[in-house]
Amino acid sequence: MIKPGDLFEHILTHYRGIFATLFLLPISAVYGAYSTLRAQIAFRRNSAPARHDARVQAVIAQVEAWKQDGCKEKLTTGRSGWKTMSELVPKYKLTHRKIDVGLYDILEIDEARAVVRVEPLASMGQISRSLIAKGWTLAVVPELDDLTVGGLIMGFGVETSSHKYGLFQHICESFEIVTAEGKLLKCGPVENSELYYQIPWSHGTLGFLVAVELRIVRAKPYIRLHYQPVYSLDEMVEVFEQASRDTVNNDFVEGLVYSGGTAVIMRGQFADELGSDGAFNSMGCYMRPWFYKHVQTYLEARRSGVEYLPLRDYFHRHTRSYFWAMEEIIPFAHHPVFRYLLGWALPPRIELLKYTETRTTQRLRERYHVIQDMLVPIRYLKESIRYFDGHFQIYPLWLSPMAIKENPGKQGFIQPLKMADGTVDEMYVDIGAYGTPGIGKAFDSAVALPALEQFVIAHRGYQALYARTCMSREDFRAMFDHTGYDALRERLPYCREAFDDVYDKVSARGRVSPVEMRELERQA
Q1: Whose CB has fewer CB within 10 Å in the chain, the N or C terminal residue?
Q2: Considering only 2-16, 104-118, 265-279, which range has the smallest mean pLDDT?
Q3: Integer Cα distance of 227 and 302 in angstroms
Q4: Handedness of CA 42, 45, 49, 53 (dihedral sign)
Q5: What is the mean pLDDT of residues 284-293?
Q6: Does this model's pTM top 0.90?
Q7: What is the mean pLDDT of residues 172-182?
Q8: Which of 523, 481, 524 is nearest to 502 (CA)?
Q9: C-alpha pair distances (Å), 276 with each of 181, 184, 219, 224
């Protein structure tokens, strides 16, 4: 007789798409509607600013209580670890003292200064809707609606305007954090500047983020998007780099690589109105083909083209399909019938997908599945594409150019490429690899991912830390500059008592698979 638990695991393993359709999509839709409604009500009533100071004082009070109790445990935020965008779950949430940082709102849009002040758990979907309604947008709008400001700062955030404005951290005008001492500090390029430059990538190991000022720019209703297919690696690299370095004419640059020698390079510009040189594409409509499938038609037709996309549709063009990962979760989700009937409910919540992972799907994911973003100097793009093609054969690959800005005299975890002759090149490219490699059972991520990390270190790049981190502590410190970080942790009172080192949070020491986390939670 089959036990109920075994039957449930069988269903989740072999009929995951059906289970996700019948259960995860309805739950996700309801929760998403609730979150959106709550944010809109709070903002329209303008009640968030009045409550913000009291919320911050509550965070300080919790830190003070920890000090009075003898600083016995490490500290972490009270937010559920299941809500992170990583495929893994932080296990330190089980043992650390949780500090409730329930800060979700937009506080102020200051049009005179061209900044928006927000709390750390405000999401990209929430912010982009509010700003676009007033004729503004963030200078960098990372793709997925559920990404939070705090996660994008403490981790990393990139989008197709990053060649012009830098990473998400580079549009941050100031941070407000509560330190382990229980002090509220405002940090900017002048005030507490060492802390300001060190907070990005620190994963909450220097203090609790409670507010951020973000740079905004004037928005226009449409994006004029030019699609250019390329049919050789040399052409791909040349066209992409030329577009990426042209920050005057190109507001957005993106590449989708469909094989080692084919890709579509896209250039976008803000537009006030629809032009006669291209068709209107309501990409945000749930019935439309997924964006990466649509882009591929230009490659197959061997033609360039221009389209006009509504601004928010462009910002979240990959959201419904989680780039191209949705096809592995619900294999039939791109079928026209599914899109017409249930496309509106995509995507399912990340935390629900993780929580329903089984032992079988865990083993398959850990060996054969890849979710990685590697940031390499753009001058090494050709070598990087060749490496991915030879060792992974995972397509499409996402290319997003970015400027890693040089901090004026300050240390940070990442810096632009400095050559032996003293020249500095800020232009990097994020290579996003998501899915199952095409080399089949010959692929083993336990071998391939550490080798990829060594390739990135050798080419003076960086790895996005939301993904699996296989590096040793020594290699991690070789990739990321800890000079200023170590000095700050020594100098800030109670910091080492309160917070783990970054490596201890993002490596296998701090994170486990969803299946392992469920078992640990049951034991706890």
Answers
A1: N
A2: 2-16
A3: 11
A4: negative
A5: 94
A6: yes
A7: 97
A8: 481
A9: 60, 53, 21, 11
Q: Which of 363, 370, 376 is nearest to 391 (CA)?
A: 370
Alpha helices in 157-290 (DSSP H): 162-165, 193-198, 233-245
Single-letter code of the amino acid located at 476: F
Q: What's the Cα-to-Cα distance from 38 to each of 82, 124, 132, rounded to whole Å?
A: 21, 15, 18
User: How many C-alpha atoms does 40 have within 13 Å on its Cβ side?
Assistant: 9
DSSP, res 397: E
Higher pLDDT, 349 or 299: 299
* The two structure tokens encoding residue 459: 């080419």
> What is the distance of C-alpha 224 from the center of its chain?
24
Per-residue pLDDT of 392-415, as tens digits, reads 999 999 999 999 998 877 779 999
Place of tokens 């577009």: 243
SS3 358: coil
Mean pLDDT of 482-500: 96
Whole-angstrom distance, CA of residue 450 vs CA of residue 469: 8
The structure tokens listed for 466 are 């939301």
**Cis, peptide link before residue 396, omega less than 30° from 0:** yes
Beta strand 97-99 with 106-110 is unpaired
Residue 140: pLDDT above 50?
yes
Q: Which two tokens stand for residue 451?
A: 């080798």
Q: In what helix (H) or strand (E) does residue 394 lie, and over which residues does it extend?
A: none
Q: What is the 3-state secondary structure (H, E, C) of 296-325?
A: HHHHHHCCCEEEEEEHHHHHCCCCCCCCCC
For residues 245 and 163, give the distance between their C-alpha atoms in angstroms, rounded to a whole number. Answer: 7
The overall average pLDDT reported for the chain is: 91
Taking the C-alpha atoms of residue 354 and residue 511, their distance in angstroms, rounded to an integer, is 13
Tens-place pLDDT, residues 23-61? 888 888 887 787 777 767 765 665 567 789 999 999 999
CA atoms 438, 444, 447, 450: torsion sign: positive
41-55 b/e with 16+ CB inside 10 Å = b? ebbeeeebeeebeeb
**With b meaning 16 or more CB within 10 Å and e meaning fewer, what string describes 259-286?**
bbebbbbbbbebbeeeeeebeebebbee
Residue 1 confidence (pLDDT) above 50: no
Q: How confident is the model at residue 476 (pLDDT cuts 50, 70, 90)?
A: very high
Nearest-angstrom CA–CA distance, 413 and 418 = 15
Q: Is 202 helix (H, G, I), strand (E, B) or coil?
A: coil
- DSSP letter string over 400-464? EEEE-PPPSS---S---EE-TTS-EE-EEEEEEEEE--TTGGG--HHHHHHHHHHHHHHTT-EE-
By mean pLDDT, which of 7-11, 146-150, 184-188, 469-473 is the weakest?
A: 7-11
Q: 5-14, 19-28, 324-333, 412-421: which range is least confident on average?
A: 5-14
